[in-house]
Structure formats: structure tokens, C-alpha cells
Amino acid sequence: LAKASGRNCARLFDPTDPQSSDESENLAALLKIAIAQNLVSLVYQPIQDVASGRFEAVEALMRLKMLDGTLVPPSLFIPVAERTGAILELGRWAIRTVCNELLVDDHVRVVSVNVSPIQLKTPGFAASVATILGETGVTGNRLAFEITEGLEMEMHSDILRCISDLKLLGIKIWLDDFGTGFAGLSWLRLIDFDTVKIDRSFLHDCGTPKGMAMLQDIIALVRNRGHQILVEGVETDEQIALMREFGIDRIQGFRVGRPVPAANYQTKKPVHKRPYLRSA
Ligand code: C2E
Ligand code: MG
Ligand code: MG
Ligand code: MG
């Protein structure tokens, strides 16, 4: 695919395709220099409380720009970063950047950061987070970590220990993309998640009676276990009305707000034309 699509598209590859290993290696090399070269940045997507209409939190999402300016989606570079271990440095960079860009002032109350199970499994991860909090003067209760149930079936005891250490720092633990993996239900049994984010595919499939029943079942399951419910991928006013009717706690999606750079949150009113101000 990469070869056929020519030079300009050579970087749009599928990391699971063995033929694309060249591009995967290029990307792996790029990830090593990405932070030093300012090729990575964060954008922030608002999370709205349904009852009050208030913007309670934002989710930090990583962006990677190639040297030629092409944007690579996280669905492509995160798996490569996880495979090579670059996710460890990128992950620490993301947490530090969130603290510096949005949490040192009162711009936003809570920022959620996606955290890979690889990070949670790595000894010293919680300690490195504590160091970042100490150095930036941010309290842990301003952070939430989103964990995605991956193909990873087992819940390592290391992960459970790390999660309890993070909770001691005051960091909330959310379950991301619930319903898409195989492990979600067993994770729900093992970890007391503050919030469960229901994957956007459930909302998008609710146009059929079967899909609607599925959405209602999954909401009931999460609610009966006492978790806060956040539904992702809200794109229309009808969906917002439905979420209100279902008593969903919080919503996120393009209809609520698109991911935007930190500068948009650094003044009282969103300023969309302001250039992105890099903090470090
Ligand atoms: P996620 O954590 O589930 O993030 C939500 C994704 O859905 C984002 O894609 C966001 O732009 C997109 N989205 C939000 N609202 C809507 C909507 O209304 N409709 C549709 N169709 N999409 C919507 P993005 O930024 O491309 O990120 C993809 C995934 O990459 C994330 O999924 C997350 O799993 C991963 N990711 C992103 N940043 C990081 C990071 O800093 N660390 C780690 N470990 N993973 C990250
Ligand atoms: Mg997420
Ligand atoms: Mg995710
Ligand atoms: Mg998600």
C-alpha cells in the first residue's frame, strides 16, 4: 500500500502490515527525536457535564507532525511508540506538558490524559508522575488517567499496584473506550474506576432497535456498578437530547467541541485564531 501510493503518501502506513515495516522503522526513529524537535504537541477536547452544561474537564490528545509537516494520527504512531518503548518518554512529556500548559493556572479544573498499559506496567511510573506533580506544583486531583482495555487480557499485579499508587496521589482513573475490547468486564471487576467512557461506536449504532438496546444495556451495566458515565462521540443535537434523557453524567464529541490547542483555554473566551503557544 505504502509503495503503491508513492512518495508523498509513503508515511501513511498500517503498522500491522508486515510490508510496511520500513515506514514503521522510519516512524520509530522519528519518535525518538520528536520531543526534542517539537514535533509532538497536545490538543484538548472539552468534556461537558450534561446536567449543568458546564465544561468540567478536557481530554489531552497527542499530535505528531512529520518533519515535512504531515500530521500522523495517534492510531498509527501510538502502537509504534508502545512497541519501541518510546511511549514511556512521550507519556511523561504529555503529563508534564498538561501540567505546564493548563494546570499551573486555573484554566481548566481537570485534564484527562490517555495512559498506555505499558506505562502502568513499567516500574517507577507512579513515582515519575509524583515527581512531575512536585516540580510543577500541580495537585493530583486535577488529573485523570484514561486506560483503554486493549487486547491485553491479563491484568498484571504490577498494573493494579501502579493504579493504587496513582490513586494515592489523588489521580482519578477512568476506563476508556468501554465495550470495544475483550477485557473490559474483568477490568471493571478489578479496578474501581471513577468514570467509564462508553465507546462512541455504541452511540453511532443506536439508530437501529438492536443498537439502541445495546446502548441502553451498556449504560445500565456501568450505572449499576456505581461508576460515573461519559459517552464519547456525540455529534448531533439529537444525541445530546438522548444523553440527557438517559441521565448520562458527561458527554464528549465534535458537537460539544473539537480538540484544540492549549491557547484556546488560556483566556476566558475561546480564541480560535490565536497561534499555539508552546510552553517548553
Ligand atoms: P481516545 O482516547 O478514545 O480519544 C478519542 C478520539 O476520538 C480522538 O481521536 C478524538 O479526536 C476522537 N473524537 C472525539 N470526538 C469525536 C466525535 O464526535 N466523532 C468522532 N468520529 N471522533 C471523535 P484521536 O485524537 O485521533 O486519538 C485516537 C486515539 O489515540 C485515542 O482514542 C487514544 O486512545 C490514543 N491517544 C491519543 N493521544 C494519546 C496519548 O497521549 N497517549 C496515549 N497512550 N494514547 C493516545
Ligand atoms: Mg481517551
Ligand atoms: Mg483510548
Ligand atoms: Mg475513547
Automatic annotation (TrEMBL):
It comes from the Bacteria. Residues 24-273 form the EAL domain. This is EAL domain-containing protein. It comes from Mesorhizobium erdmanii. The chain holds residues 386 to 665 of 665 of the full protein.
